[in-house]
Amino acid sequence: MKNxxxxxxxxxxxxxxxxxxxxxxxxxxxxxxxLAQPLVDNGMLVGVSVGLYKDGQSYFAGAGSTALEGDxxxxxxxxxxxxxxxxKVFTSLLLSDMLLAGKMRLEDTAAxxxxxxxxxxxxxxxxxxxxxLAQHSSGLxxxxxxxxxxxxxxxxxxxxNEELYEFLNSYKLTRRPGEIFEYSNLGVGLLGHIxxxxxxxxxxxxxxxxxxxxxxxxxxxxxxxxxxxKRLARPYGPDCRPGNNWEIAAxxxxxxxxxxxxxxxxxxxxxxxxxxxxxxxxxAESMRHERATSEAGTRIxxxxxxxxxxxxxxxxxxxxxxxxxxxxxxxxxxxxxxxxVLANTSSKLVDSLGAQLMRLLEHGEADAIxxxxxxxIPEAELKKYEGTYYLSHDFxxxxxxxxxxxxxxxxGQESIRIYPESTTRWFYRAVDADIEFVINGKGExxxxxxxxxxxxxxxxxxxxxAPDNKVKQRQEIRLDPALLAEFAGxxxxxxxxxxxxxxxxxxxxxxxxxxxxxxxxxxxxxxxxYKAVDAVIQFVRDEKGKVGKLILHxxxxxxxxxxxx
Length: 565
Prior knowledge:
single chain, Lipocalin, eight-stranded antiparallel beta sheet, 14 helices, 23% helix
């Protein structure tokens, strides 16, 4: 259950509220503050810096503070933030620069640039190529399995080239490179390291010589000076609790860049200019290689994600998140529009804010982001909610009172605050989920129900028995390969969580959004089991005999997913 529920916990959705309508003459700075300030006032973001570009004009606005304590000031266009995975766009741009210079090819294998003592994994003789790394189709996992940080507050600092090589020498690919999109910090981090080896220069030097120098981005770098540290906004987690800055060693190409709204907006403008402007050809090269992703309607170029708006324009974007920051860069090259949002809070609300800001540029109006109001519950009463609530034998929600806050820690995840809408209904602000506490006639909390993605998952104070080990002894039967085709398709488990069923070489495979693809094996004509994890997929036919949905059985839960494609 752990893998499936972890993915579901990250599901996030946006709800519209009051409309900020268009006017004859739009004050984009004032409108931006109208959208951002309520998020600050309600304790959802600490500080935010925004840059907008339309009709050849740049606009900047800030809200909140660079710090909740001490000498905090309102962030401006020169405040420095960690940008997280937006760094992947820069890494792919460095690759594009090498391509145009004839120094590398997308068809080149990763292995040819690595030291001789590194054995790059392959699948049935098919190697991982540079294109696969840039487009998240290498078959490498999201993170290496030997990632064991000594300091969880600075987890990437001690993952060095030695650990990276150790992983590559031992890892076995489960599928052919280029076959399936699977987002991989590891893959792009490896690409950044390969660029260092190919050029003979460290990543920061490459960044300065090939991108930030030519574009005049004076406040964008991996490492910042003591003077620049004064402009670095302090980091905060999703509940505006103090976070931590990250230092990234081997995988810096996946998320190590720090920047400002001014620099990032200028970067976005340069990406849209064309002609004889600096790096015009390099940007064009990074945007022209496209492939599908695992998300419907989303494609990926070299580093850039691509979606179409209602007018049919391509929107090129990337976001990023670290332990105390969240960022978004989005471009509409057709209409020459750009937005950048940088926050010193690790919250996906930044993505919601950015989407509305792009809508403001495109249509002159935007929806205010819905803010759910919480009530006050005395600290003394919070104790009755404390405890461990088991959703399955190996997955639980641990609830604990910390002062006036109630915190929930899911197995293997960070502790997140929940807020009371009533004495029984509480909601997250960091993710789109609710917890409903069940209180008996004595006023005691007996259990809870986690509501997320259309599913209601009960949690009991009593830990259920461990799954019968005999489950792992399921017997595989043989099925007519022609029968398997009936099960192929996409099954929607939650708004942003889909299980894709495919058939290959007479076998059935299942891939959940953002996860690896695994084979599943038949134990009956409609029931298939995993060997990699303790889970079963049961296909359900309608009255006409057609497969209309599946049910994922895992960790004591039965999760239905209708067939959508």
